[in-house]
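Consider today's protein:

***
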Amino acid sequence: MSDKPAEARNRRKDILGVVTTVSGDKTIKVAFEYKISHPTYRKEVKRKTVVHAHDEKNEAKVGDKVEIMETRPLSKMKRFRLVRVVEAAPILGV
């Protein structure tokens, strides 16, 4: 066992993103956008990354804004887990 207290370990990444797909049981795909500067033209370019996250209680729906946290590998693709649903998706057609 390690003598280090829990505070001494590295801080895990927290990401805010939008659920794009609920794929299978307890799995969601979360997309988050960021901007980078183009190396030649110095214009800001939008980029998007999609990650798979573990949703233990199946509480996230498509369109929800969620907070996910980096964790140990849970499967071949899943490296994040759902922390909380920040904002529920608006209900359309009502």
